[in-house]
Structure formats: structure tokens, C-alpha cells
Amino acid sequence: MRSIVSFYLLSVWLSFLCVIFVWLWSGTWRGGFAWDGSFLQFNWHPVLMVTSLVVLYGNAIVLYRVPLTWSRWRCKLSHAGLLSVAVVLSVLGVCAAFDFHRGNNIPHLYSLHSWIGISTVVLFTLQWFGGLCAFLLPWTPLAFRVFLKPLHVWMGTAIFILSLIASLSGISEKLLLTLNGRNGSNTEPYTALPAEALFANSLGILVVIFGLVVLRILSNHKWKNPQFENESDRERHPGVVFCCCCPSASRLDLLCLQGCSSAYLGCNEWLFELLLTFYQLESVWPFSSDL
Ligand code: HEM
To answer: 117 C-alpha to center of ligand 1: Å?
Structure first.
């Protein structure tokens, strides 16, 4: 228990450092921010991408491992909430880079960084939308959730790794493009390792350490919050129905669901009926017992 807390605190501390470093790099060495198609608009790009796809995303995916006494519903909402903010910020971040290219007649999507970057944003948006429909909307069939969960977890980790790769390649590319000692550039070349390069390289190292800490937290199954073991219970016992709308309940079998149906009916009668129908359908769903 103590080690998960230390790892989690380390990840929170590194999150702040990553945001502060990227903000200072763009704000101090790169001249600040604007939204006018100039290179100052581009400066939003690293800040928004690191904040959304590295820091917010990383924190959202370790949420289920943190030993909080939160209910399943609260964890779900926080996970979805952090990721929703990340979607908005990442789309704005990509717009900042595209606007800058358009405004300065620079071709779009020519670099390896931009290819990895655009794939990451597209996959992330699809994953977010899929997750929202499958795990947050109460009328999604339970069997479909059980079916989708392993893919969702695998894709979630893969997208995080892609975000780390995109960020590191972006930092490197930006330094190579700007600290080139050409075009009347008043900065020393990258090869001379000026203060800006040292600072931005350190940002890259922070991103790497943050990524490794998040992956370490994710890879240790002993740190899974015992509350969420229910999810695998459901996989082992497809007859169990989980209440996903009633914030006070985390797990209810069919009997309990009927038992608390008055509370349920009070909030949503048709939903209760629908869940029961899905429950009956689930018992004939060919995949549920295999998962
Ligand atoms: C998850 C993180 C990131 C993603 C998904 C991402 C995505 C993208 C995309 C899609 C483009 C293409 C824009 C266009 O073609 O008009 C781009 C361009 C660019 N990005 Fe990033 N980016 C990320 C992080 C960063 C970071 C941290 C930096 C550091 C400064 C950076 C630097 C650049 C640079 C210099 C360009 C323009 C040159 C090029 O098109 O490769 N990126 N990025």
C-alpha cells in the first residue's frame, strides 16, 4: 500500500513539473502566447499537448489504481471528466499547430512527428468516444462492456505510449528547427547546448520519467483497487448485474437490483426495465461467459 501511494505522489509531482517546464519553455524562451496564426500561436501547441495527452491522460488512467475510498461511479466520472478536458485541449493544441502552418505557408503533416501525433489524437478521440458510449451511457448492454473492456484497457495504454513518443519527437524537432544558428537566429546552435536546449531536454526527461511511473503503476495488478475487482467478478459471473447509474451502489446482483428497484424506479423506471431486458439478453450472449 505504501509503495502505490509513493508512486502515485511521484506521478502527481512529476505532472506539475512537466506542465511548469513546458509552460516556461514556451512562455520564456519562445516569446509567449497569442492566437493569431503567428509563431506565438504555435507556442500553445507543446503546452496544450503535454498538458492534455501526457499529464491529464496519465492521471486519468492511473485513477483506478489509486487507493481512494471513492465509489466506482465517482471514479468513472473523474476518469471520464479528465479525459474529456484532455480531448478539448488536445484538439485546440493540434489546431494551434495547423493554424501556424497555414498562416506561414508551411506544408501540413510532412514530418514523422506529425504522423505519429495526428494518429495519436485520432485514436485518442475514438477511444474517448467509444469509452463514453460503452461505459458511461447506462443503456449500453453489459455484455458489450465486458467484451470491450480488455480492448479499451490495451488501447488506453498504447495511446499513452504514443503520446509520449509524439511529445519527445516534438520537443526534439522543435529544438532542431529553432536552434539551428541560421536565418539570423540570435540563439546559439543546438549542438552548443544553450540554456534553452538544456531546459527543453530536461522537459523531455521529465516526460519520460512520468511515463515510466504511470506505466509502472498500470503494470502492477496488485495495486488494482479491490473495489474494481467487481469488474472481473462480472466477467467470471455473467449473471451479476452492476448498477452504473445509482451513485450509492457499486455492485448489485439481480436480486438486489429487484430489491432496490424502488430507488431505481424512482429515478428511472424505463431504464430499470431496459437493464433487466439486457440482463436477460446477456444470458444468451455467446461471448459473456468466455470473457
Ligand atoms: C502528444 C503530443 C503531441 C501531438 C499529438 C502532436 C501533434 C502534432 C501534429 C498533428 C502536428 C502537425 C501540424 C501540421 O502539420 O500542420 C504537429 C506539428 C508540430 N509539433 Fe507536435 N504534437 C505533440 C507534442 C509536441 C511537443 C511537446 C512539441 C514540442 C515543441 C511539438 C512540436 C511540434 C512541431 C515543431 C511541429 C511542426 C513541425 C511538424 O509538422 O512536425 N509537438 N504536432
So the answer is: 6
Substitution site in 49, 127, 206 for ligand 1 pocket (most atoms within 8 Å of beta carbon): 49
**Which of 113, 120, 196 to probe ligand 1 with, by most ligand atoms within 8 A of CB?**
113
CA of 149 to the centre of ligand 1 (A): 30
Q: What pLDDT shows up at residue 8?
A: 94
Whole-number Å distance, alpha carbon 109 to ligand 1 midpoint, is 9
Tens digit of pLDDT for each residue in 133-150?
999 888 888 888 888 989
Separation of CA 17 and ligand 1 centre (Å): 20
* Pick from 196, 165, 163: nearest CA to 178: 196
pLDDT-derived band at 267 (thresholds 50, 70, 90) equals very low
Contacts of 74 (CB under 8 A, 6+ apart): 247
pLDDT, mean over the chain: 82
User: Residues in the chain, how many?
Assistant: 291
Residue extents of the structural domains in the chain? 2-228, 237-290
30 lines ligand 1 (CB under 6 A): no
pTM of model > 0.85: no
Which among 88, 99, 95 has a CA at the least distance from the CA of 37?
Answer: 99
Compute the distance from residue 106 Cα to the ligand 1 centre, in Å: 13
- The domain defined by 2-228 folds into Four Helix Bundle (Hemerythrin (Met), subunit A) (1.20.120)
Nearest atom in ligand 1 to the alpha carbon of residue 109 is 15
Cross-strand bridge partners of residue 253: 240
Render pLDDT for 17-43 as a digit per residue (tens, 0 to 9): 999 999 999 999 999 999 999 999 999
